[in-house]
Amino acid sequence: MTANLQPTRPMPRGRLLVGTVGALVAAILIVCGGILPAEYNVDPLGVGKLTGIVRLWAPEEKTVSTRARSMAYAREYDVPYRQDVVEIPLGGFLTGNDNSELEYKVRMKQGATLTFAWEVTGTSEPRDVHFDQHGHTTPKPGETMSVASYKQAFGLKQQGAITAPFDGIEGWQFSNSSENPVVVKLRLSGFYELIQGGQPGNEASVVANVPAAQARPNAPFASKAAP
């Protein structure tokens, strides 16, 4: 018996066009609503945010070393955290070097960090005050001293941070070349120790956390320098 085969009729052109357009629209919706938010964090339709698909996206990861020059970015210290304000009065240059300039430093362990900010009152001329920011070890007689020089300049203010390259003392040499007394107000915070008066780094016996008039009680100009 011979099968009665009916010829397949082609899909009408209108239905084919509608089907093609529908498939294209569906593909666009899938790409814009699913693939772009999930893979590229691009959400033109807002569907990714609405459905939470956008949370599937994550940027390419790059591992960053947590050490630089053998120093860790994250550290812990045995020295307690502290904050201090040191008001340093300096006499005019006519009062002599012992009064118009001094060195003030703090003691730090290698790798310890402090932040600082200082500003001069008593003059508006930047070239009146010179500073030498540096640090050095305190070796025993016969031993070599290690020195780190950071900045030498004229100016009335500075702010930043210091990370000690060795066990030693870190700070500044301040010099006032004007005729009038000035005060350097130094703010410190971090992991360091104050140096007792008369010791290297604080030979002028500056007292921290008191007004300028009391910071150098033996200096005759101190009260005049206080703002």
Detailed description of the structure:
The chain has 2 domains: 37 residues, no CATH class; 144 residues, Jelly Rolls. It contains 5 helices and 11 strands. It has 227 residues and is an alpha+beta fold. The radius of gyration is 35 Å and the shape is elongated. It is 20% helix and 32% strand. The strands form 3 sheets. A 5-stranded antiparallel beta sheet has the order 7-6-9-4-11. The protein has a 4-stranded antiparallel beta sheet with strand order 3-10-5-8. The mean pLDDT is 82. The longest helix is centred in the first third of the chain and has 28 residues.
- Give the SSE string: HHEEEHEEEEEEEEHH
Number of helices: 5
Which sheet architecture does the biggest sheet show?
Answer: 5 strands, antiparallel
User: What is the fold-level CATH name, i.e. the topology of the largest domain?
Assistant: Jelly Rolls
Percentage of β-strand residues: 25-35%
How many distinct beta strands? Answer: 11
**Unreliable segments (pLDDT under 50, ≥5 consecutive)?**
none
Secondary structure layout:
Elements: H1 13-40, H2 47-51, E1 67-68, E2 71-72, E3 82-90, H3 97-100, E4 101-108, E5 113-121, E6 129-136, E7 147-154, E8 157-163, E9 168-176, E10 182-190, E11 193-194, H4 212-215, H5 222-225
Antiparallel strand pairs: 1-2, 3-10, 4-9, 4-11, 5-8, 5-10, 6-7, 6-9
